[in-house]
Amino acid sequence: MLTDKQIQRAIRELKTETTLNDGAAGRGTGSLRLRLRPTAAGVSATWMAFWKKDGKRQTKPLGRYPDMSLAEAREAFGGEVRQVLHAGRNPRAVVQAVEKPTVEALFQSYVAHLRTAGTATVDEIERILLLRSSNCADGLGRHRNAADIEPADVSKHLASHFARGVRRQTDLMRTYMHAAFSWGMKATHDYRAENRKDWGIKANPVSAIPKDTEASQARERNLSADEIRAVWNAAPDQTGDVLRLVIACGQRVLETIKVEGKEIDLDRALWNMPAHKTKLRKRPHTIPLPRQAVEIFRELKAIHGDGPLFPARQGSKHGPFIGIPSVSRGASRLTCCDPFQPRDLRRTWKSRAGDGAKISKELRDLIQQHALEGDTGSKHYDRADYLPQLRAAMDKWEAWLDQALQPKEEQAAA
After folding, report:
1. Helix axes 324-332 and 237-249, enclosed angle (nearest 10)
2. Are 132 and 88 in contact (CB under 8 A)?
3. Residue 118 region, left (φ>0) first, then alpha (ψ -120 to 50), else beta?
4. Considering the entire predicted model, what is its pTM?
5. Tens digits of per-residue pLDDT, 138-180?
6. Residue 39's CB: how many other CB atoms inside 10 A?
7. CA dist., res. 351 & res. 364, Å (int)
């Protein structure tokens, strides 16, 4: 077995990477070792647990020497590895307590999990939980332990925003906080993960807060042909191009914001949306482009090339693309028609493509990915290439939109 004197001597005399073995207590119990590596700053010493599983060597770092003494390393090895091996479980799946299980750390880890999973709305979730001036982390106390948060803390934070009249945003805060605390609880018991973390959360404090069922009323707002023409001509610059492309293509605002030049085939007038940018992230989505969209994309690609066509300012917290709030602010400043939200334009496309361009509901659903989301047959079995039909439908929309965008006097003359 190792002694402190042996370790110190090995560190002083170290020339190349060396592993010191503290010995094993019997077959199948693993062994504790100290891995020494020479670095520019001196010697790096790490306590490592070694064992075999299915004939393959497994390792797990336990701590750094001398921060973790020899006695502490033996105690950690006995509890985290030897006892776990005796129980027939994988030591790498041992639940470990989070060093600083604060509200901020919980929300940051939850956002990192969503980002790894490729959640499309992760930037907005991060903004509400951590970044905006009145974020949830500050409202609950970002340096408090997550396990210490009570329903009263959550209710107090939400009540202050509800009193300001931002009902929809308040409900989103509740939803995202509930999801974050639920993730923290489940992460502790997720048997599929090798490195589980215990946040100490025994109950979700947000569960006691009733959901505001009236905060997310289904919207009916859709723009008339006259309003489409007014918005098309009045919306300025970058955010205006987002609004115009949603009108022209009928896709989601977030999908439009995240479009890159490499996805647009100008020669064939196609938008090839990769699967990870669609709502369900299951299949790529290709739609033909009307002439109006091709013209916009051509100008954007001339400026930005194959990269993001709606890039954020340098140092932006929204990542490489502009955020939805920027587009929403741009829409709110328009005075050319009654107020609307950017997402109303997708509903507008669905409505005007039906009653104006006379495109069938089946084709409108395919263009907007609705048929692929809710219909079991379409989702699992129907893989037909509808591109010719979609092209014909978009030709109808192009003609209708071209007419709608003409000045009223020219429409009357025609």
Report:
1. 90
2. no
3. left
4. 0.61
5. 999 999 999 999 999 999 999 999 998 888 889 999 999 999 9
6. 7
7. 9
> In the numeric block, which tokens belong to residue 86?
């005796």
241 contacts: CB under 8 Å, gap ≥ 6: 235, 296, 300, 310
Res. 93 pLDDT band, cuts 50 70 90: low
Residue showing tokens 């985290």 = 80
Handedness of CA 123, 126, 130, 133 (dihedral sign): positive
Q: How far is CA 195 from CA 55, 153, 186, 202, 378, in A?
A: 21, 30, 13, 19, 38
Residue 59 β-bridge partners: 50
Alpha-carbon span 371 to 362, nearest angstrom: 7
d(CA 111, CA 117): 10
Tokens coding 139: 């409202």
By the 8 A CB rule, do 309 and 273 touch? no
**φ and ψ at 260, to 5 degrees?**
-120, 155
Which of 357 and 279 is assigned the larger pLDDT? 357
Whole-angstrom Cα distance, residue 117 to residue 105? 18
- How far is it, in rounded angstroms, from Cα 272 to Cα 265? 8
CA distance linking residue 397 with residue 401, whole number of Å: 6
- The secondary structure of 140-199 as a DSSP string is H-TTSBGGG--HHHHHHHHHHHHTTT-HHHHHHHHHHHHHHHHHHHHHHH-TT-SSEEE-
3-state DSSP call for residue 78? Answer: helix
Laid out side by side, the sheet with 56-64 consists of 18-21, 31-39, 42-53, 56-64
Angle subtended by helix axes 344-355 and 387-404, to nearest 10: 100
Distance CA 104, CA 337 (A): 42
Distance CA 405, CA 234 (A): 12
Diameter of the chain measured on Cα atoms = 99
**Per-residue pLDDT reduced to its tens digit, 98-136:** 889 999 999 999 999 898 887 878 888 999 999 988 899
Token output for 144? 């408090």
Which structure tokens are listed for 266? 């100008």
**Is-contact 248 405, C-beta < 8 A?**
no
